[in-house]
Specification:
Length: about 375
């Protein structure tokens, strides 16, 4: 099971620099939509890692449980782009000097947790997974974290550090463009990425696992800023209808296309349509970003306060949730073999992982000695 869970973590994961979302943003006050997107994307990350285990083992799981797992997996693949777009929307706004100084100040907020959690997962792999790792292995993974981190989901912290170095240049260039030009730039990027992805047949499928895919990170980063600046948070009725239809069409293409292509491939999951740079995921992510911003306009003070509380610990939930999955497996709540119907078992396990992770992070944040590990 541990081997399968490791594979599930490699499928996809991501997170932006959560502690930074409300500094140097579009407004000085705390806005509603980033919290909603952060919470939504955090849930998606957990669902991806839980559903990926049965989704990659059709012969063992069988139909239709495998179909449900693939659908959960496909619908959650917006997590990577949503986090990047939210960070871009908030970190690229404001004056060049402000976002530049802010970005450099945040290196420690990401770099220190990266070192600490890399060490923690190094010990975790030795003690819990019984892997024969050495100190030289740990050093290697630290130095090659963007392509081969000590634990797969930590690659995104390296990506965020790289994006920080680009913020002053991007902010300087983008703030001089009109909203229409920004949207045109995003459209051009989407067309280029779609063409390149189709030509390579998904060879560079995973953001963060090859340097060429860094362009995808930057593209989503700019897209979030462009959408937040050019489009109103609240959509008109016809705009909302179009956006919902586009999202549903892209989600159907990702789910049905993956099921069909994988079934023809002797049950081996074909992840080409689930990659962050796949055309269907790209369209689904952009439309989800717009829809969630629209939904946030209907949130009252009560729901937003609850979302904000969870959003403050979502960075820590992302960092620790693979450990929670392993613990549940040790306690007997297995994903392989999958003994229950995945249509309800995957949401159940995902909910337990979220609760366990949130509880652990809440406890860590109570102490001044450990609070800096999950800022």
């Amino acid at each position: 099971m541990m081997t399968y869970m490791w594979r599930s973590l490699e499928l996809s994961s991501a997170r932006a620099a959560w502690p930074d979302l409300h500094g140097g943003g579009l407004k000085s006050e705390r806005v509603l939509w980033p919290d909603l997107i952060r919470v939504f994307a955090t849930v998606c990350v957990v669902v991806i890692h839980v559903s990926a285990v049965p989704a990659t083992h059709l012969p063992q799981v069988g139909r239709p449980a495998w179909d449900y797992a693939v659908i959960y997996d496909a619908l959650s693949r917006t997590a990577v782009p949503l986090f990047i777009m939210t960070s871009g929307a908030l970190l690229l706004a404001g004056s060049t000097a402000k976002v530049g100084a802010f970005a450099w100040r945040r290196f420690g907020k990401v770099g220190i947790p990266l070192l600490v959690w890399s060490a923690a997962y190094f010990v975790w792999r030795i003690v819990i997974r019984n892997e024969p790792l050495t100190v030289s292995d740990c050093v290697y993974h630290l130095l090659h974290g963007f392509t081969d981190p000590i634990y797969p989901h930590l690659w995104f912290l390296y990506a965020i550090l790289i994006l920080y170095t680009l913020i002053p240049l991007l902010a300087f260039a983008l703030r001089r463009l009109s909203p229409r030009l920004l949207l045109g730039l995003v459209l051009m990027w989407a067309i280029i990425e779609t063409t390149e992805f189709s030509a390579s047949q998904g060879a560079s499928a995973f953001i963060g696992f090859d340097l060429l895919s860094l362009a995808g990170c930057v593209g989503y980063f700019i897209a979030g800023y462009a959408l937040a600046r050019a489009l109103p948070a609240k959509l008109r009725h016809f705009q909302l209808g179009i956006c919902i239809c586009v999202f549903m069409a892209a989600a159907a293409a990702a789910s049905i296309g993956t099921i069909f292509s994988s079934s023809r491939g002797e049950g081996r999951l074909n992840e080409q349509l689930l990659a962050p740079l796949a055309p269907d995921v790209l369209v689904m992510s952009i439309s989800a970003f717009v829809l969630l911003r629209h939904l946030s306009t209907y949130l009252g003070p009560g729901p937003h306060a609850r979302l904000a509380r969870f959003a403050t610990i979502s960075f820590g939930v992302y960092l620790i949730h693979p450990m929670a999955i392993d613990v549940l497996d040790i306690l007997g709540l297995h994903l392989d073999p999958l003994s229950c119907n995945s249509i309800w078992y995957i949401p159940l396990i995902s909910g337990l992982v979220l609760l366990m992770s949130a509880g652990c992070i809440y406890m860590l944040r109570l102490s001044r000695l450990t609070r800096w590990v999950v800022p």
